[in-house]
Amino acid sequence: MEEVGMGEYADRRPAQLSGGQQQRVALARALASEPDALLLDEPFTSLDTQTAGQARRLIAEQRDRVGVPMILVTHDPMDAVVLAARTLVLRDGRVEQQGLTADVLGHPQSQFAAAMAGVNLVAGTAEADAALRSEDGLLWTGRGDSMPVGGAGTCVFAPGSVRIHRGEGLGAKPAANRWSGTVAMMDPAPGGIRLFTAEHPSIAVDCPSTTALALGIRPGVQLRFSIDADDISVRRSR
Fold it and tell me: Total structural domains in the chain?
């Protein structure tokens, strides 16, 4: 109980505990029995950020100390990064992708898997100079696999790696890794907002709150975007 921060509440009844506190007690009960295997279904739901981090550490220590096998069900990629050697992505009861966690999260093979990993996935066809042309006409270059002209591939990059500039469009043929668009939707994101444009709705861009305020970002505003090739991972399509 002490390890999950619940020592001072040991004499309280379940009805006197909040949802997050009850979650911590359930975690302590599961770990105290030193089980042969752990099945964890969204174990960090209702926990604040600090407590969730402590809980992940406890589970990782239990796993490493006794080598207990573990199956973890989660919607948070952080759980997979910290706790999982292998990751399996399920969609509507069917396997979307599986493999080493680094491969699944770093190189998702579908938009659904990319959304779960919290990254952008852009598919395209290889042109000269190892560049990919996506269906919306944008040109992308990055690091990774080399592909023959005409080959299919994907680009993966983090929403937070994109730079944002206030201004109009880039012309008929923008340079690689550059695009423009009108802000259509804004969602909360850690430390700021996540925005999407009407012209490229599948590309998410994260923006700190201070930047959003400085640039006057809101729906209807025209913005320009760019990203370094070093921040883009390129893979052949499988």
Answer: 2
The sign of the torsion formed by the CA atoms of 104, 109, 110, 114 equals positive
Helices 19-32 + 49-66 axis angle, to 10: 10
Is residue 85 within 8 Å of 99, Cβ to Cβ?
Answer: no
Whether residue 133 sits in one domain with residue 51: no
User: Could you tell me if 142 and 153 are in contact, meaning their C-beta atoms sit under 8 angstroms apart?
Assistant: no
pTM: 0.79
Q: What is the DSSP letter of 175?
A: P
Q: Which of 44-48, 116-120, 151-155, 221-225 has the lowest mean pLDDT?
A: 44-48
Residues 129 and 216 in one domain: yes
Within 10 angstroms of residue 167's Cβ, the number of other Cβ atoms is: 10
149 in any annotated domain: yes
Based on its alpha-carbon atoms, the radius of gyration of the chain, rounded to whole angstroms, reads: 22
Could you list the residue range(s) of the whole structural domain that residue 70 is in? 2-84
- Looking at this protein, which amino acid is placed at residue 118? G
